[in-house]
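Quick one, tokens below:
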């Protein structure tokens, strides 16, 4: 028996005359903003979810690893047009920002029928397709064609009356960082007019923004669980937000509501897959407090700056430098958890031997970054060897090597770059397996490495 569609009715309570007259959030007393009554736009019946086997469900073909982009097909998750019955992906584009889109619509600032005009928005740099793009072992957490989606599949979108949106975008920029200016002043970095542009230390980069697109069978395999187990956990932990994780086992693609990645490339991006060219790489996980606001409790910004400097140097020598920046704040536990951990650390007399324990007490785990998925962007870039890995993390190292990418040299941050209060963090990490050419502290020695206490901060 074909199951009935899961439908709810939402009655319209607004006055018809009050609807759809205005597109601004600031309106006069006698005016109403564009409808809060979206039934007039979307209809009064809400299809809560589709079910595999629904008679009217005909998902657009998406053959994830097909090398022919026409045969592969676009990622379609939007409910717009005929998307409710034709989508082939669960979730929404733009990760957490999809909710701001909803606020813009409901507050009358955005016409829900707005069609993006992508004229001149295409990438300024060509990234040649790599064999890794079509390898089921290599890319499971981003759409390899995400940067070209509206241009490759515009015709499909129009013919099928569905929305196709990009999940990646590429641009060029100039970076101007005070620490790099200082390096140029000291003579440690020489302007060449190409990578480091001038005496002010401005640097030319190519940037790639990547939103995650998960191919569920591949993600499950990477984590060593079954696809069904993964679907159930995602469904439960998002409190049932994505019922089609359960009702549509035929749909294999999920756009999770999490932050993405930005890649900064120094040097010619076309050279990255070339094994004759050397590559320096920093994989950096977001730490807003340090990266942006220069908190001195950890080494994050210093390592980031070190990574950028070394990446630029490698590009100046004729190779490439890549810095991949992942939105995984507080080891993917979030900043709220992070500050609670800071408090617990400081009140207990911040000591390196209890560094991870404080996080585990609150979060239950010491880390939730799942580096297993991180190498996907490296595969997308065509990286097969990293000559200088600008990271001490054993988790990042093991994930990259486990994905078949060679690491020639691991480069630790110079001691003199570490900020005042960060020894607790870095020495605890080294004792837990982070790479160093220097001293690995014993648990007994870690007891003597202390950071600031609450008294020092008040
Ligand atoms: Zn940090």
């Amino acid at each position: 028996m074909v199951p009935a569609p899961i439908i709810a009715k939402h009655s319209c309570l607004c006055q018809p005359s009050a609807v759809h007259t205005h597109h601004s959030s600031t309106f006069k007393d006698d005016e109403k903003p564009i409808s809060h009554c979206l039934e007039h736009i979307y209809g009064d019946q809400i299809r809560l979810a589709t079910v595999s086997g629904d008679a009217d469900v005909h998902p657009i073909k998406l053959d994830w690893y097909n090398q022919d982009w026409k045969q592969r097909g676009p990622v379609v998750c939007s409910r717009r047009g005929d998307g409710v019955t034709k989508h082939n992906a669960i979730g929404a584009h733009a990760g957490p920002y999809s909710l701001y889109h909803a606020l813009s619509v409901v507050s009358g600032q955005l016409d829900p029928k707005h069609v993006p005009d992508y004229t001149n928005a295409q990438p300024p740099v060509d990234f040649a397709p790599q064999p890794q793009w079509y390898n089921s072992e290599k890319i499971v957490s981003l759409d390899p064609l995400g940067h070209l989606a509206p241009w490759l599949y515009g015709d499909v979108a129009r013919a099928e009356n569905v929305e196709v949106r990009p999940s990646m975008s590429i641009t060029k920029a100039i970076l101007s960082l005070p620490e790099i200016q200082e390096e140029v002043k000291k003579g440690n970095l020489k302007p060449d007019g190409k990578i480091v542009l001038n005496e002010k230390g401005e640097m030319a980069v190519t940037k790639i923004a990547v939103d995650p697109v998960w191919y569920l069978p591949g993600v499950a395999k990477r984590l060593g669980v079954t696809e069904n187990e993964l679907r159930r956990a995602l469904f439960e932990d998002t409190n049932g937000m994505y019922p089609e994780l359960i009702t549509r086992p035929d749909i294999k693609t999920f756009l999770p509501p999490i932050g993405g990645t930005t890649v900064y490339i120094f040097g010619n991006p076309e050279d990255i897959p070339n094994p004759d060219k050397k590559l320096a790489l920093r994989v950096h996980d977001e730490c807003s407090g340090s990266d942006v606001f220069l908190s001195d409790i950890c080494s994050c910004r210093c390592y980031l700056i070190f990574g950028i400097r070394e990446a630029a140097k490698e590009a100046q020598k004729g190779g490439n430098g890549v810095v991949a920046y992942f939105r995984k704040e507080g080891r993917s536990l979030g900043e709220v958890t992070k500050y609670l951990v800071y408090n617990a650390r400081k009140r207990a007399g911040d000591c390196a031997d209890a560094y991870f324990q404080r996080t585990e007490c609150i979060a239950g785990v010491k880390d939730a970054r799942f580096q297993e998925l991180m190498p996907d962007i490296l595969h997308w870039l065509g990286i097969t060897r990293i000559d200088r890995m600008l990271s001490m993390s054993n988790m990042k190292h093991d994930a990259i090597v486990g994905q078949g990418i060679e690491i020639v040299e691991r480069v630790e941050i110079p001691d003199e770059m570490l900020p005042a209060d960060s020894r607790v963090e870095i020495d605890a990490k080294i004792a837990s397996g982070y790479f160093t050419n220097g001293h690995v502290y014993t648990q007994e020695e870690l007891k003597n490495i202390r950071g600031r206490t609450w008294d020092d901060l008040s």
